[in-house]
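Problem statement: downstream parser choked on a complex file, so we are re-checking the raw output for the adenosine-5'-diphosphate run. The parser issue turned out to be on our end (a line-ending mismatch), but while we're here, posting the original submission so the record is complete.
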Amino acid sequence: MVTSHIEKISVRQDESHKGDYGKVLVVAGSIGMTGAAYLASQAALRAGSGLVTNAVPCSLNPIMAIKFIEVMTLALSENKNGTLNKKSVKEILEFSKKCDVSIVGPGMGRAKETRAVIIDLIRYLSTPLVLDADGLNAIEGKLSLFKKRKYKTVITPHPGEMARLIKKDVTFVQEHRTEIAKEIAETTGIVVCLKGHKTVVASPDGELYVNDTGNSGMATGGTGDVLAGIIASFIGQGIDIYSAVVVGVYLHGISGDIAAEKHGPFSMIAGDVIQALPDAFKKAGLY
Ligand SMILES: NC(=O)C1=CN([C@@H]2O[C@H](COP(=O)(O)OP(=O)(O)OC[C@H]3O[C@@H](n4cnc5c(N)ncnc54)[C@H](OP(=O)(O)O)[C@@H]3O)[C@@H](O)[C@H]2O)[C@@H](O)CC1
Ligand SMILES: Nc1ncnc2c1ncn2[C@@H]1O[C@H](COP(=O)(O)OP(=O)(O)O)[C@@H](O)[C@H]1O
């Protein structure tokens, strides 16, 4: 079943250049959570993207510029407290015109000012969108925002984020994983990727995938940020959004399994999942 989705990823052609493999914009990171921005951006590059840019509040730009080598940065306007301001929305929208896909949310925090920026981005970003983490926390109960969005969108909540999104508790979410994912996808027109053990992916057309790769060693901070980067990378490489999410979730789990074999489930960390991606690609026949 996954094979038919993997086959959609193009073998890299001799006659090609970085522009052929997708430009990814990663709006992520805030004071205290620069690691999330690093992990999502680095994972997108390792999954094959041609160019990746991390947009951060400008006071964090020097930190990100030191962390990254291959990933570029976009320094955004900020308020005195270091949160993104209204002007930053314009800056992101302008930059996104050159991009094939955007990630919004990892490590952005939950400040009121940041929430307003995120809601504007959901409304106005015209690239496909991977909305993760604090991108989802910004819109508690506001699923109707997606009905108005004309561009391809995937949300990647863990059970806690899903609970906030639909205003239920985590127990309810875990007891109704498939039904919730299917219902949101079908009523709002977006792809839903409900993470956790046996991640569920649902499409607006009623397709459903339940993942069986991955392991409990992946229950460690930052592995979800890695997944957002991988999914965005595949969307940017031009495959349809549902397949991009299915392949992303599958390969992320395989990478997690390789990392667990190497480092053990206790010691593996999110960066190890990125390090294992090359072997996961090989295992899936993608090289
Ligand atoms: N290095 C960095 O910069 C890092 C930055 N990060 C960034 O931190 C931000 C906050 O993200 P976060 O996930 O840590 O906190 P939050 O949204 O409050 O969720 C916790 C709640 O959800 C629940 N829950 C979760 N999974 C569950 C499951 N499978 N099954 C069941 N329940 C589950 C959990 O339940 P509990 O622990 O109470 O059992 C709790 O209620 C975000 O922007 C992220 O990108 C992180 O990625 C780490 C590395
Ligand atoms: N027990 C598990 N089995 C399989 N996959 C898991 C398990 N625990 C966590 N994962 C995966 O690890 C990732 C964790 O993401 P998330 O909870 O968003 O973490 P973070 O916010 O720290 O990045 C998800 O992709 C999830 O499916």
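For whoever reads this later: Strands lie at 23-27, 51-57, 72-76, 101-104, 129-131, 153-155, 191-194, 200-202, 208-210.
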